[in-house]
Amino acid sequence: MATPDVLQLLRDSIAASKPPILTKSSDPDTAEANRTDSFVEATHLYFTYPSPQCLPLETTTRFTSTTPDTAQVDLRSIFFAWQHKDVTVPEYIALAAELDKQLPEGQKIRNLVFVERLDLITWLEGASEESEYIKPIEGAGAVGDAANRAADVAGGAAVPTVGGSGIGVTQTVGGRPVKVIDARLQAIYNGERKMGDHNTVLRGIKPTDFSHVRKHAETFLGRRKGAPSARPGQPSKTAALTARPAAGLSKPLHSAVSSKRSDPIILLSPSASSLLRMSNIKTFLDTGLYVPPDHPTLSSQTTANLLHITRTLHSLSEKPYRFILVDSPEQFKPDYWSRVVAVFTTGQIWQFRGYKWREPQELFGHVLGIYVGEKGLPIPAEVKGWGSSVKTFAVERWDERAHGANVDQDTRASRRWRDRETVEEVWRGIEAFMRGRGEWRR
């Protein structure tokens, strides 16, 4: 029986909502009875999907960590990172260090850096099909070669022939059986007319430039829509579209969709005066309810430095988008900035010190600015000075007696119904910005 690929097995189990469990037994029949929550006691990982099996925690995976040195990560470290995917980076490091003190030498947890852990979790959740840290499965190249040879034969490529009575015979080459066709039969095959279906006839050997079609199509589309002529000094919409390269011929330099991890990013303000921080932003954008960031009802929630929110933007795609929310670009790679679609700001310029674009006018020329203040209070002069690229919104003042912990959830939601209106306006602004960029359409 072939050894299963551990990473793919873990990913499939997560997708089937049947994650593996830690166990002290190597026998699948007794693994459930010997399950444990301790990495110190556990010796194997018990998978129930697609078939029961136990794999040692020391099993080496295809995931390669490059910090501090290049090494393949074992199953113990992979599963530990997955179990603690929602904790902050400092907490993850502290938990790994505490566990290492109890584990024997040679079984230490491999501490994955932020980018590696994010890449691993994204791949395991199925949000990405590729990972720069995961090596291809061995033998995939041989399978591809076999497929290519089969395609060559199907396309009429030459096949080894022998003289004889016209009956195909089998020879062995390199330990593999190879069908050899009689020379006369091959001559008949060569004289046949090559047939193809709809797909093979339309498939070319090189990309085709359809830019000339775009020019003619835009002329007719422009007439049908009755678009007004361009203002003096501004290029027309037709000219702007024809100046673009044909779709599929050249890849945009900073295309977020072409990225392996194409989730759009929203940056929050780390300021203590901000009404929306990591502790309450998910409640606000997900459920349409504003709760102060330091409210006791939120104190039990883990303040992570990375959150995910799923939202369907119907004008772009019927498939939901997964947004990544962070309050600092400290762990950003250079290409991550092409995926930033919105920045929540309080008007304090020091927020942009670590940004790619430190000047507010330049920053909000590339991303959407969002200011959320309290209704009745003036908008900061700095925010007004940054122009229309910063959208301003307001939420009603929080009243502890009317909205606090002593009020049930339904009553609180009904009394703060205007929050939902504000949230929808925020999402409409983000959707309009992404639609204007064009590269987020699916």
UniProtKB/TrEMBL annotation:
Localisation? Nucleus
Alphabetized, the UniProt keywords read: Nucleus, Transcription
User: Into which family does the record put it?
Assistant: Belongs to the CDC73 family.
UniProt keyword Nucleus, yes or no? yes
Tell me the organism.
Capronia coronata CBS 617.96
Q: Which GO terms describe its biological process?
A: positive regulation of transcription elongation by RNA polymerase II; transcription elongation by RNA polymerase II
The cross-references to Pfam families, in alphabetical order and at most eight, read:
CDC73_C
- One GO MF term, please? RNA polymerase II complex binding
Q: Region Disordered: start and end of each range?
A: 223-247
GO cellular component term, pick one: Cdc73/Paf1 complex
Which coarse location class describes where this protein primarily resides?
A: nucleus
Q: What are the residue boundaries of the Cell division control protein 73 C-terminal domain, all occurrences included?
A: 261-433
Q: What's the protein here called?
A: Cell division control protein 73 C-terminal domain-containing protein
